Automatic annotation (TrEMBL):
Residues 280-366 form the Nuclease SbcCD subunit D C-terminal domain. This is Nuclease SbcCD subunit D. Heterodimer of SbcC and SbcD. Keywords: DNA recombination, DNA replication, Endonuclease, Exonuclease, Hydrolase, Nuclease. It comes from the Bacteria. PANTHER family: COMPONENT OF ATP-DEPENDENT DSDNA EXONUCLEASE, NUCLEASE SBCCD SUBUNIT D. Belongs to the SbcD family. It holds the Pfam family Metallophos. Gene3D superfamilies: 3.60.21.10. SbcCD cleaves DNA hairpin structures. These structures can inhibit DNA replication and are intermediates in certain DNA recombination reactions. The complex acts as a 3'->5' double strand exonuclease that can open hairpins. It also has a 5' single-strand endonuclease activity. One of its GO terms (biological process) is DNA replication. Residues 1-90 form the Calcineurin-like phosphoesterase domain. One of its GO terms (molecular function) is endonuclease activity.
Amino acid sequence: MRILHTSDWHVGKVLKGRSRISEQIAALHAVVQIAKAEQPDLIIVAGDLFDVAAPSPEATKVVTRALSALRATGAEVLAIAGNHDNGAALDALRSWADAAGIILRGRVSEHPADHIVTGTTKGGERWSCVALPFLSQRYAVRALEMFELTEAEAQATYADHLARLMSRLAAEAFTDPGAVNLLTAHLTVVGGTMGGGERDAHCILGYAVPSSVFPSNAHYVALGHLHRAQLLPGACPVRYSGSPIAVDFGEEENTPSVTIVEVTAQTSARARTVPLPAATPLRTLRGTLEDLAAQAEANNADDAWLRVYVAEPPRAGLREQVQELYPRALEIRVDPSVLPDAATRTARPQRTGRSAPQLFSDYLTHRGHEDPATKNLFERLYQEVSG
């Protein structure tokens, strides 16, 4: 059996106000081309199809067309909701998905059978997959109401709830010794490396679970949520496919790819990554204005979207100077290394008996903004208003 594993499309993602829909379309087109070439039996999309819970009509059209194109390759297509998706809205598309032959799961249902998907490949291999959309801490206990819980079980941790839920579902799904046992979910596994653009609140603290939550008799676990492709240690193969496009700054080092898995009921899963053509690269530049000017002359960032850290004290017009050097700079910040440290900024100046321009000057000094032009501009504005 051959599986194509992808996730974290984040269609509709806007980068610092800049639409990237054309880049996202190109990345998904590349995924479809790989599916045509590899001819998988099953394609798993492990969550975060969209970037926001209320996607635009254009983003919805891109996702539905991509799913339809993947289905047109002859593979079964199974997609689940991630933490960025609106599970209820995805479930509202299930009538369309069912008609298109696409398996779509948006929310955790009270019916266990809704999360067990089975099929048979063209070669006659049987498979069974536990499909678990993203589950928030708030609804973790409610999801387990499909089974009877003791009071102690109801008060357990998020990881315990997920382990119990997967164990119960696997006990019902993995009953055929001649079938390939699969599980797909959207969550954070302890030890996984974040890609750089994930939503921190759903990746750390109580949301990080050990790989021991997955049933040991699964042949392959297809995960979404972390944007960097990686294999994690566990009793069964546990893998993130990564995002097909660098979602945000901080993901410059990620290699966009999909994962191709070959597995039988009697053999271990063998996975390989298939890289995708790079979209517009994201790059981070650092240095003084002089350093940045020298880099601009080298023309080494003409094709990229840029984040620039300027290693100079804040001053009026600094942003405009950087923007003139790099018109494709979407984010410009003062490098934290040139700002006063926290200890210096803790002591606040005396306010009593001081004029507004003096207070503003003290504020700029306190924040590391020693810029006479800004102080003079404030004084002029203050005099106009007060006069």
